[in-house]
């Protein structure tokens, strides 16, 4: 887990934009929560959820594939990375659904373009101006609070719906006297006054956790900000450092250990609210099927996505497995995607918030035309 994902803004780093008119949806189940954890850098799905039952895997990964020997075997085909101990426990408890050979519509290998497609939900880079998570907020009644645990609002949450951002600060905490003086300064300002009050509320809610460091503190902070009747209903956590061209075994182990800790701390911090929560973990694209000569992998296509939470119909792997034979690889080098990430997201969110998944797909991803999946992903 790269600590840059949680760098500083102070209390006044809360960002907000104006409200937008609501779309004509039925009332969503707003006691339910959704958190998106983005893996920036192209996470290696073939290492995260190794297809150890595929006859081509060992030959493509003679060094990197050895890590799977210590992992959690989920079925005859797939083995979960050993660093994901809490995810393995969630899977055993039927609170995690692991999806393989998944990708957004993007088929090139630029991080910037791939992340833009992942976050805006467009069919091509930079074709959509707002993010699919902001569009999700606009489908829900009562102006639910949405928050990014990041220094600024990420593209996935940008748009006309009101969104906040919060990140722990590396700077010394402001004294109470200074906070009062700034509050007095902004008190009669129609624009800055409400924003300052909102920032103070977020600062108070974060409490001592905002000064913590590391993955556990990040997950616990997200839980604290999303817990209870007054908590945010929509949230996003940024992680980076997933671009493992060299020395992948050690680096990926550290990344996954951090991710596992974030997810476990978020689960534990939510308490009973975990039962009404859906978490999505996804990346912009995967990595090459064959390991490279520097102990790593290069930019690829298909990868993995996780759905986790007490609301998930979990305990299994969902995959239309394409195989790793030379003729089965995408462009003779990558895992071929067989599940559309936008379809997965729309289906899961439609089921989670009590909406028609086909209509959810139209509203969140109007540019892609993907049909929802038929699987039951989330419990009613």
Describe the structure in your own words.
The chain is α/β, with parallel strands linked by helices and 380 residues long. The chain has one domain (33-365): 3-Layer(aba) Sandwich (Alkaline Phosphatase, subunit A). 30% of the residues lie in helices and 13% in strands. The chain is built from eleven helices and twelve strands. Strands 1, 5, 6, 7, 8, 9, 10, 11 and 12 form a nine-stranded mixed β-sheet that branches. Strands 2-4-3 form a three-stranded antiparallel β-sheet. A hairpin with a 5-residue loop joins β3 (72-73) and β4 (79-80). α10 packs across α11 (357-364). The model is unreliable at 1-29 and 204-212 (pLDDT under 50). Residues 1-26 form the signal peptide. Pfam families: DUF1501. Keywords: Signal. InterPro entries: DUF1501, TAT_signal.
What key attributes describe this structure?
380 residues, Alkaline Phosphatase, subunit A, 9-stranded mixed β-sheet, 3-stranded antiparallel β-sheet, 12 strands, disordered N terminus
Q: Count of helices?
A: 11
The CATH topology name reads: Alkaline Phosphatase, subunit A
Helical proportion? 25-40%
**What is the C-level CATH assignment?**
Alpha Beta
Question: Which regions are unreliable across 5 or more consecutive residues at pLDDT < 50?
Answer: 1-29, 204-212
* Biggest sheet details: 9 strands, mixed
How would you summarize what this structure contains?
This protein has 380 residues and is of the alpha/beta class.
């Amino acid at each position: 887990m790269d600590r840059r994902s949680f760098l500083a803004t102070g209390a006044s780093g809360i960002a907000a934009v104006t409200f937008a008119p609501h779309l004509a949806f039925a009332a969503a189940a707003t006691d339910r929560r959704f958190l998106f954890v983005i893996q920036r850098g192209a996470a290696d799905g073939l290492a995260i959820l190794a297809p150890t039952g595929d006859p081509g895997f060992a030959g493509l990964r003679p060094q990197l594939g050895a890590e799977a020997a210590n992992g959690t075997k989920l079925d005859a085909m797939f083995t979960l990375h050993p660093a994901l101990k809490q995810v393995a426990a969630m899977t055993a408890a039927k609170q995690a659904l692991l999806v393989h050979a998944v990708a957004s519509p993007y088929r090139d290998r630029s991080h910037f373009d791939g992340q833009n497609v992942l976050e805006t939900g467009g069919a091509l880079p930079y074709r959509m101006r707002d993010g699919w998570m902001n569009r999700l907020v606009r489908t829900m009644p009562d102006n639910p609070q949405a928050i990014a645990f990041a220094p600024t609002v990420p593209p996935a949450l940008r748009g006309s719906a009101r969104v906040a951002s919060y990140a722990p600060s590396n700077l010394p905490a402001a004294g109470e006297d200074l906070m009062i003086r700034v509050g007095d300064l902004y008190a009669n300002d129609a624009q800055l006054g409400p924003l300052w009050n909102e920032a103070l509320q977020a600062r108070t809610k974060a409490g001592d956790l905002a000064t913590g460091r590391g993955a556990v503190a990040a997950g616990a902070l997200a839980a604290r900000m999303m817990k209870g009747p007054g908590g945010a209903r929509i949230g996003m956590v940024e992680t980076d450092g997933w671009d493992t061209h060299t020395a992948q075994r050690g680096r990926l182990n550290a990344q996954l250990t951090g991710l596992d800790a974030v997810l476990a701390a978020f689960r534990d911090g939510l308490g009973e609210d975990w039962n009404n929560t859906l978490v999505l973990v996804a990346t912009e694209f995967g990595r090459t099927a064959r390991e490279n000569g520097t102990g790593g992998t290069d930019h690829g296509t298909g990868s993995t996505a996780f759905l986790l939470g007490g609301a998930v119909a979990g305990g299994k792997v969902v995959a239309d497995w394409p195989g790793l034979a030379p003729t089965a690889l995408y462009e003779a080098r990558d895992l071929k995607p067989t599940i559309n990430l936008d379809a997965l997201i729309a289906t899961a969110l439609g089921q989670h918030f009590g909406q028609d998944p086909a209509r959810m797909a139209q509203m969140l991803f109007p540019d892609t035309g993907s049909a929802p999946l038929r699987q039951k992903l989330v419990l009613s």
